[in-house]
Design brief:
Blueprint (H helix, E strand, L loop, with lengths): L6 H15 L4 E6 L14 H7 L8 E3 L5 E3 L2 E6 L5 E6 L13 H12 L14 E8 L2 E6 L6 H4 L26 E7 L3 E6 L12 E6 L3 H10 L4 E2 L8 H5 L4 E16 L9 H10 L2 H9 L4 E2 L22 H10 L5 E7 L3 H15 L3 E7 L2 H10 L5 E6 L20 H12 L3 H17 L4 E13 L2 E2 L16 E2 L2
Parallel strand pairs: 1-10, 14-15, 14-16
Antiparallel strand pairs: 2-3, 4-5, 5-7, 6-7, 8-9, 9-10, 11-17, 12-16, 12-17, 13-17, 18-19
Helix pairs in contact: 7-9, 8-10, 12-13
Length: 491
């Protein structure tokens, strides 16, 4: 007797099928570092932007997934003939996640706050050229600069330039409120931050209803969490030695892209004998970049000889200036009269620093430089190294986009004070023509390489692992961000 479905049962099964096949509407992402706070306008840690950039906060402009500058809260802008006045035209109907309205006065408040004398903004230099911010009408704001700046829309795309409201600014560090598609939900210190979709978002609604960012610093624990499905993706995966295992497993997708992360052995140029260029050059020649890349990152990374990303069209390969040459290192130290040198090496938590630091220490020992290694947690590193400059050497990856201009700040943590370089950066700020800007950027790369400000190690690769069913994650990292606004599950 042929098998038959009763009509009611068939209808039930047919109607249930779509519900059973519905994709998830939440995601859990793994992160190595927990942010010290959640206010990108008052903190230097990249982990802040990894949670809130484009998700909670928006700026006048933003970085797209390939590094392109896109409109954000400003739907368009005009530039005066002399290049000194930018007029931004804002979207209407925008609200902050606490329900307060957004308008041009919030842009003025945010930019004036960022450039104020008492500003806590970690990238205050982005706003240095602004002389006035004027509200023309509720949806138009005019920004006047002291000189032409063709990179101004680029500067406004940084996480440090997002727009905040006076009503909520006091609590941004622990309860961020922005205009983005996700609102802050909760933060369990030491474990996770959760964001939930903001129903009043002005733009295209995200596919996800919630996103949780779990903090897992240990590489072994990160591997176990991904393998068990406790996290759906780990965009900056800290155990590159296990990537081949994930590549062989069809449940996962391994993503290898680029970052803006120049990984450097930074030197405190203020401290003797590091204030002697011969000593800095000796340290640079003592480092075998490929050995660090292979030993710490299992081959993932691109050697660099200056502070510039190799994928940038203006990049110059200057690795030969500081090629591995231990004999030259010893000769330079002897010429400088340096003997029995011991330097303090401060290492923050990332794998590239902890693993790389051991290799660098061994390479320095081979030319007669002893190191005293101190492992610091991220908050300690920000206080001791970044703020108080209490270090000799450190290893850190600078993930901010096109940030060679940090070398024009004598107060910056590695203390490089070069008037010619500062003049070159001022010239770059005044230059609009792309070809001229590239030439100046090339000169800047050569200047810091020949001054051996730091030992340049490698460009950090973006190695991530994700559930194979996930789509919309960034392959590359043009800025530190885990933008989940376009992330969705395959049906």
């Amino acid at each position: 007797m042929p098998f038959r479905l009763f009509p009611a049962l068939a209808l039930l099964l047919i109607s249930a099928a779509p519900a059973l096949a519905a994709p998830p509407d939440s995601i859990t992402l793994g992160m190595v570092l927990e942010p010290p706070n959640l206010d990108p306008t008052a903190g230097a840690a990249a982990a802040i932007d990894e949670v809130v950039y484009a998700n909670v906060f928006e700026g006048l402009t933003r970085f797209g997934p390939e590094g392109q500058i896109e409109p954000d809260l400003a739907k368009s802008w005009d530039v005066s003939a002399d290049g000194t006045v930018y007029t931004f035209h804002l979207h209407s109907g925008v609200t902050f996640q606490d329900g307060t309205a957004f308008d041009a006065s919030d842009v003025k408040f945010s930019l004036d706050r960022a450039r104020a004398a008492d500003s806590a903004n970690a990238q205050k230099a982005l706003f240095r050229g602004i002389t006035a911010v004027d509200v023309t009408d509720p949806l138009t704001v005019k920004v006047t600069l002291d000189a032409p700046d063709g990179a101004f829309p680029f500067k406004m795309a940084w996480g440090d330039a997002v727009i905040v409201a006076p009503e909520s600014v006091a609590s941004e560090a622990t309860h961020p409120v922005g205009t983005g598609p996700f609102a802050f939900a909760d933060w369990v210190k030491g474990d996770h931050v959760t964001l939930s979709a903001y129903p009043g978002y002005w733009g295209e609604k995200p596919a996800l209803k919630s996103a949780t960012f779990r903090f897992i610093s240990d590489p072994t624990a990160a591997f176990a969490a991904v393998m068990a499905g406790d996290v759906d993706a780990f965009p900056n995966f800290p155990a590159p030695e296990t990537l081949d295992q994930f590549k062989a497993d069809p449940r996962f997708r391994v993503m290898v892209g680029t970052t803006e992360g120049e990984t450097i052995l930074a030197m405190n140029n203020r401290n003797p004998p590091l204030n002697d260029i011969r000593v800095r050059e000796a340290i640079a020649h003592a480092i075998d970049r490929q050995e660090v890349i292979d030993g710490a990152m299992f081959g993932y990374g691109t050697p660099i000889g200056t502070h510039f990303a190799p994928h940038n069209p203006a990049y110059r390969d200057l690795t030969a200036l500081s090629a591995y040459d231990p004999a030259k290192s010893k000769a330079l130290l002897a010429e400088a009269g340096v003997k029995d040198l011991t330097l303090r090496l401060a290492l923050p938590p990332p794998v590239y620093a902890r693993r790389g630091g051991e290799i660098v220490a061994a390479e320095l020992a081979a030319v007669g430089i002893r190191t005293e290694i101190t492992n610091l947690e991220w908050a300690q590193w920000l206080d001791q190294v970044f703020k108080r400059h209490d270090f000799d050497l450190t290893i850190v990856s600078h993930t901010e986009p096109a940030d060679i201009n940090i070398y024009a700040r004598p107060e910056y943590y590695f203390g490089y004070d070069s008037k010619p370089f500062q003049e070159l950066m001022a010239k770059l700020d005044r230059t609009v023509d792309p070809a001229e800007r590239s030439e100046i950027e090339g000169q800047a790369q050569e200047m810091i390489a020949k001054d051996y400000v730091n030992a340049y190690l490698f460009q950090l690769a973006k190695t991530g692992v994700a559930d194979a069913r996930l789509e919309g994650l960034w392959l590359n990292a043009p800025t530190p961000a885990n933008d989940v606004t376009a992330v969705h599950w395959k049906p």
